[in-house]
Amino acid sequence: MFPSREDLHEAKRQAVLRQAATSFNARGFHATSLADVAAGLGVTKAALYHYFPNKNALLAACFDHAMALCFACLDKGRAEGRNGRERLLLTLSGYIAQIIDDLSCAVVLLEEGALEADDYAKVIAERDRFEKALRGLVREGVKDGSIVPCDPKLVVFIMLGALNWVPKWYRPGGRWKPEQIAAALAEVFDRTLSSTPAAAMTTEVARISGRRAKARAAEPPAPASDPPDPGPPKRRGTRARTNGAAKAR
Amino acid sequence: MFPSREDLHEAKRQAVLRQAATSFNARGFHATSLADVAAGLGVTKAALYHYFPNKNALLAACFDHAMALCFACLDKGRAEGRNGRERLLLTLSGYIAQIIDDLSCAVVLLEEGALEADDYAKVIAERDRFEKALRGLVREGVKDGSIVPCDPKLVVFIMLGALNWVPKWYRPGGRWKPEQIAAALAEVFDRTLSSTPAAAMTTEVARISGRRAKARAAEPPAPASDPPDPGPPKRRGTRARTNGAAKAR
DNA sequence: TCCATATCCGACCGGGCGGTTAGATGACCG
DNA sequence: CGGTCATCTAACCGCCCGGTCGGATATGGA
């Protein structure tokens, strides 16, 4: 028999965690009782205590899981992107997929305050590390010319805000499929950051083709130059041209 | 004597509301007890019941107030902007100032679920109206050429997400002043939406000059054309040029 | 087969919170 | 001065929720 005793235990633990994350996301941490979580699994409250010592530990585990996923996205983005902008947008695409698809433990991000002091410190530290890494990608993009000069801290805040807000309006059965949303957001962020901003964006998210490369990664590998951004395209492509230096300093 | 009996009552009511909003924002609705709110005002729990029938009514009042401010911003933006993009960005600048400065009742937006059914329906209806209006501004901007073709619904979601996230990272005593943040966000959104995106943005929010026109409203009134966006500037200004049609459909 | 252990349940406890009530205080008005 | 009403408090109630406990059932190893 494959599933050993410990395997089963771990599997159930995961199930509890997922259910808890779902409930917390739906109604908020404080508004969710352990009885709610248990009911969602068809067991009673007391059963949960076989897998977690208390409610706060459950929340902490949600955060840990979410942060782990964040860093996984970061690694993937770093590996697959060809310049700073691509790496950043690939990372964020992954992040959003995680938020939408994965029953998203992540969005619990809203209730950090509910954590106990030491758990809180740990999560915040991790989150800071993640944000610092994103800012690093932005700086990288500015340096290699794929991203316009900007304040990395600010743009990262903006993007994370937009992403973390998604669960507020995303409707699982709705007309916008997760991949479409991820692609659309990447497109908008690309417009914001790219040193060669698009002249137009998709006018209907619902019409974005299913499989669509994110972060412009699949665009023709830029006829001319390579990894560092192609710079102003030869002429009248799908890119807008920015004018002048100014503001930057 | 100026303050009549009713005036005093109303003033205290407002004080209760502000305190409640502050507490709700800080710790969340469910995590805030009425005793907390009362303590913040130096009174006891029972006193609050002279001004609000129950805790939920308090929350509902917060939402009402917040939504009223939203529509005030909208009116102001509509009146002062010279094209769709300006009107939109002015509105959002006001919105953010409200969130940051005004002890922000608004951010309670996160706990809508805590409202009772009928209050909930009312707030959601108002919020939808507001979002619809913003989308209208986007469409307007696309039509008058100040905003690139895009999906209005999506970009509004993105912007509201970014804005509603601000309270998560804004620190009252910090290096970024509220006006700087408002200006910086407007600049980034401008980069995202403008049909003539800037070639660079501010690289340090903390260095943005105090009084700074928002939404590009104060830029030289565009030597040539008028209200509708100046279109691609004559040559090498501070604006990037976008290339081609493509994507739009 | 029998013991040890894991799993889960029903019942319970203690505390905290929303909400109520009775009464004390004081301001206004005739 | 006396009555009325607003204001606010202290004390209390009932409920719900996090957490615990003893016991029932099942599972697996020797």
UniProtKB/TrEMBL annotation, chains A, B:
Stretch list, region Disordered: 206-249
Alphabetized UniProt keyword annotations: DNA-binding, Repressor, Transcription, Transcription regulation
Protein name according to UniProt: TetR family transcriptional regulator
DNA-binding region: 33-52
Biased composition (Low complexity): 240-249
Bias type Pro residues, positions: 220-231
UniProt key word Protease: no
PROSITE patterns listed in its UniProt record: HTH_TETR_1 (PS01081), HTH_TETR_2 (PS50977)
